[in-house]
Amino acid sequence: MIVLPDSEGPAACYDGPVNRLCKLFRGLPLALLAALLASAAARAEGTAVLLELQGPLGVATSEYLVGGIEDAADSGASLVIIRMDTPGGLVEPMRDIVQAILGSSVPVVTYVAPGGARADSAGTYILLASHVAAMAPTTHLGAATPVSLTGDDAGKPPARPRPGVPEEAPQDSADEPADAEPAAEPDEPGGPGTAMERKVLNDAVSYIRGLAEAHGRNADWAEKAVRDAATLTAAEALELNVIDLIAVDQAELLRLLDGREVKVNNEAVTLATTGVTVEPVEPSWRIKFLSTIANPQIALLLMLVGIYGLIFEGYNPGAIVPGVVGIVCLLLAAYALQVIPVNYAGLALIVVGIILIIAEAFVPSFGALGLGGIAAFIFGSIIMFDSGVPGFGISKTFVVVFGVVTGLALLWLTSYIVKLRSRGPVSGKGSIIGGTGVAMEAFTGSGKVWLEGEAWQAQSIVPVAKNQHVRVTSMDGLTLQVEPIAEHGAADAQPQH
Please, are residues 121 and 230 in contact by the beta-carbon 8 Å criterion? Predict the structure, then answer.
């Protein structure tokens, strides 16, 4: 029985199990209140998700950053910090990241760090798209001119006059009449560069200006970063209102962010970063694997291993392992070539080079085909990855050394395989017929001969002397049909084949 509390004092309970149950329920509201207070305190402090953008920007990096921003929103994080050090990268992954930042319900802070880091090319777009753009001292940003797949600048228009800088008067040329019409503007039909190059350039200018204006930053300089590949140090960027703040380290960044008001989806949000917990989010093993194979050097290695494996399997049907490894490596290389910029003329040269090296093993060209194949492979590798996109080039030294070594290895391998095939059978019935053995006894009709380290039952219609060499003419089951060879050998003579 439980006695309810009266106005005179606290509740009382009789002794026994009911008493213990009473005490449990009496303490439950206090426990719930403590849990609610702790939860509220945790929400007040908040959590900041830290994402890393290191190295060239590719498809795998985009998937990691976009997924990290979405997970931060789902988990109720109060802030996303992207720590950046990138030379740039591909346009489509960059646009995916920018869209994720602009559509995020969580404020995104991009922090170019540590000292010496950079936010070049595509990194500049991401920095300007962020709700807060921060940099560490001795870092820089800019050089956001789009690059075509051939490595040329998109459009290459003449620089426009800078605000506050007088334009130099054009000088007369001896080859041009004084009343000649002025050259067409870059945006006009017939201006410098192709129509597609001008289109790409103007699209990039409009895009980066829109990102800068969305957060009240210097849109004129952003346009210069595209048209003139302009760059700025952190101090210059802060002075020109390209970024919002400079922080020496992450602790100072959080201190400077506290109380700052930003616009997130057109709504004012005040950042509260005092006591915030920073949780680094590492890329998954899948993202790391995709980033690794999307490297030009790795893609080239995978492609060659795949080709070598299929060649070896073709010369040795049934080996299985080389064929399986070759197919897997070629599929991985095909994925890598889809997510990194390549010139397929270079890929065609690589294929031609491999064909020439293989042909050298069959055609006695005194090395002409082999040397031509190695040269085609080297030039093809350089051309294939010479896209001009930052972070997706290939070392020429690596290509030359790798091309010579692999070319010589492939030439030796094909030559060796051809020699093996020309030797004929080395086991079974094909290797026994035509072989030479030694008679173990004198016989006419049936007897025994020693052949390939074994004693065989043999038959001969011609008398055979002991230790006489015999030649196998045919084979009937496990019985050999032999004929004697005129020359006699010693008793320990070894059979020949």
Answer: no
CATH of domain 46-161+185-285: 3.90.226.10
Helix, coil or strand: residue 172 = coil
ω into 137 cis (within 30 of 0): no
Contact 127, 118 (CB under 8 A): no
Q: Is the pTM of this model over 0.85?
A: no
Q: Where are the beta strands (DSSP E) in 181-259?
A: 231-233, 245-246
- Write out the two tokens for 481: 């049909």
Q: Which CATH number fits domain 429-488: 3.40.30.10, 2.40.50.140, 3.40.50.10790, 3.30.230.10?
A: 2.40.50.140
Alpha carbon distance 304, 306 (integer Å): 5
Amino acid at 396: K
Helix (H) or strand (E) holding 447: strand 443-451
Span 361-385, pLDDT tens digits: 677 666 677 778 888 888 888 888 7
| 3-class state of residue 267 by DSSP | strand
Distance CA 138, CA 118 (A): 9
Burial of 24 (0-12, 13-18, 19+ CB in 10 A): exposed
